[in-house]
Amino acid sequence: LVSSNALWSFLEPEVQAMPLEGYLPFVYLPNSKASAAFELYNHGNIAFQEGQSIEAEKCYRQAIDLFPHHETYYKGLGNAIAMQNRRKESIEYFDKAIEINPYFGEAYNVRGLTYLELGKFQEAYWDLQRAASFTPSDMSAWSHLVQLLLNLAHLYNSKHFFEQAHLTATKSLIIFAALTDEQQAFGSNQRDFLQQIASMKA
Relative to the CA of 35, which of 10, 53, 65, 153 has its CA 20 to 30 Å away? Predict the structure, then answer.
């Protein structure tokens, strides 16, 4: 309990405190604020997966109001807002997720993708590099990084960026080969794209 946010779950609802090291708790007291927030977060995830971004945003905001210490809640809120084409606004919530947990690879990934969509390539590159570094098993982070390098290669007619895209794709496939079957199944769509880029020649 000392090394995770689970401590705060046992203190809730009487005590409000900051989390330790950005960990998401997996133990909740029944009828606690943490438990209610987690239920709302799960409802938000279901709504998001069904494309109901406004309902998802509502659930994530309610979860944060109850228990504003979890990076995953802010990442979910940022995703729901970005789905509504409010990308600049979504950055604020990805920032908050990273503030809580500076090693949260998923948040760097979605913020980097958002920067990419906004045409802010330097910020996107910084974020996507960290996403791949902090969560190397996440093939979507590698795929987004390679896509950014390809965009830069075409934008500047640069062989250097294309070579970087090729090398990055190759590196990601080496990592992919070491993943579990379950992880590989989850990243199979990104693998196909990365294989295509790794097989291309400058």
Answer: 53
Mean pLDDT of the region 35-49: 95
Cα distance between residue 66 and residue 73, in whole Å:
11
Note the pLDDT of residue 9. Answer: 45
User: Residues 162-176: what's their mean pLDDT?
Assistant: 96
Residues 74 and 93: beta-carbon distance below 8 Å: yes
**Mind giving me the DSSP string for the chain?**
-TTSTHHHHHHTTT---PPSTTPPPS---TTSHHHHHHHHHHHHHHHHHTT-HHHHHHHHHHHHHH-TT-HHHHHHHHHHHHHTT-HHHHHHHHHHHHHH-TT-HHHHHHHHHHHHHTT-HHHHHHHHHHHHHH-TT-HHHHHHHHHHHHHHHHHTT-HHHHHHHHHHHHHHHHHHHTS-HHHHHHTHHHHHHHHHHHH---
How sure is the predictor about 102, in pLDDT bands with cuts at 50, 70 and 90? Answer: very high
Is the pLDDT reported for residue 171 higher than 80?
Answer: yes
